[in-house]
User: What shape does this take?
Amino acid sequence: MVKLATARESRLYGPWLSRNRWEYINAGLYVFATILLLCGFVSLLSDISAKSGLILLVISLVFITLVNAHDLFAHLAGIDYRIALIGFDLQLGLVEFAVPIIQGLGSILFFIGVLFVFIQAERGHGHYKLGRHALNLLIAGPILWLIGSVHDACQIYERADGHVQILQQSVHIPFLMGSLLVLVGSVLNRDGHRWLLYGLELLGMSWIVLGIIGSLLFLIGGLMNLVKVFKMQQMDGIRLEKLRGGAQDRLVREREGQVPLILEEQRRRKRQIEEARTAPSPAPVSVPGGTPYKDVLVGQA
Assistant: This one.
């Protein structure tokens, strides 16, 4: 459950205005998804609105998966989708590439687990095996969230000021604690032998309460991420410097080696002019015979 707070200098995809717009949309969509997630867990406290709560959980998980897909697209676009460059940049592979995939897979597993519970609640006592699978999936999803949160917190900077580091940690810590609480709730729910129960009875009070607290932490992290995106775009100069010698540096060097045709033509003409200036001038050739014009005038006088 992470909106990736990348250590890169910027998201290198699309024009500047379009990039900023998509960053705001992405951060706002995550906040909206966490609000739906929180409302879904709260709705499970009442038997009347329990099924509606499951629907809200499913919708929120779809949005969270889309947010992580956007993060993956943004990081791959920063290196022109050259997957081979990941081998030269450890942080790009373990954080910026792996974290969105892990978080997206965790959201998908949690989505399937909630969906299995909803199917059991809707169709009656005809799908007994779905209950055990649902409980296992509700554990597997938060495990991946927790792994992704730990990876996301292990970012290394070349240089960063204190303000930027506070913004980064204000995003990392709520996501890490929220993922841990949801995982603990799922494990306690599984150890309560709830696989013998059915439908909404699979979801115990411990899972719901810890899910509410975890969702609240996700919401806090999403709001802080929104603040971080705004502050990072309003800052003058680079206050979070990317690691040197990584994939983006290699890509920049490759781009500098590929000179556009217009610049190449200008360089060729400049080279020709310099060669013409440095070439030795030919010696003057004397023309034999003939009378100078001045002598002709004196003779006529």
Confidence is low (pLDDT under 50) at residues 1-11, 259-264. Residues 16-252 form one domain. The two ends are 108 Å apart (CA to CA).
